Predict the structure.
Amino acid sequence: MSVYIPDKDRYNGVMKYRRCGKSGIVLPEISLGLWHNFGENAGFATCREMIHFAFDNGITHFDLANNYGPSPGAAEEMFGRILKDSVLLPREEILITTKAGHDMWSGPYGTGSSRKMLMTSIDQSLKRMNQEYVDIFYSHRYDGVTPVEETMQALVDIVKSGKALYIGISKYPLEEARIAYDYLKAHDVPCLVYQGRYNMFSREPEDGIIEQASENGSGFVAFSPLAQGLLSDRYLHGIPADSRISKPDGFLKKEQLTDQVIDQIRSLTAVAQKRGQTLAEMALAWVLRDSKVTSVIIGASSIAQLKANLKGAEKLSFGKEELMIIDDIVKPVRPEIK
């Protein structure tokens, strides 16, 4: 890993950047995802303020997908409005990513990883954001049906058409990822980055995914580093009315917040306090401790939340004993977090 600090006065030297695999691209250690909080019910002024605050603090990487909202497409539309409205976000200084592969519209062609789905989706995404291209376009998932070669050829063609500068894959199993890396390399459009769920509770990328990406010259970007907010102090004293777990259409369910999980959160909080961090700060630092991790994607619903999460790029070193204690705490139960 190489760390790069851009010579920009406005970044105030706060954000560090990591080389994305063997490419010329660097990503901020902390990136902003627009999954939940930039939908049709979000206020435009608040969303714009958060995007501006993020950029002013060195977050140059904004992560979207065609189905982000709610409803599907709403986050891209919101982001497009913000870009059009603002002269403070020069396109050459931000990196926009989007994806396709999950349920987007009804009918047989509105989901999955087929060439038809991806080709239609990139055009729709560009239109919603009023952009000529995105920096990275991902296959959002392996759907279990479409041949990997079909999906990868669509990604190759999207890059060669100029609609994306780079491509990535997200949540692919090891074998399908191997096929993807090999196919893309053979067609002169190497995979820039693998995006996967990674946090103290969700350790699947440690079973070869991160190492495989590194061996193929790809970066690794972690999403859900706070396990949908479980790895924070948010649920230590009950369920807040404005939390993700309180929303009926959210991915985090009340039944996942068991007494044992709450005990784990309390124990992890005690470890974080000894380190002089909040649990959220420690959780972000824990992911970033691995030099093979290029960036972590955070979500935020307010400036205050975003500001607090930026501290997660501090204190990245962990002692062996600290890591052992964390492992012992989370081993008994790892809640399934999407």
Observations:
- The chain has one domain: 3-227+286-314.
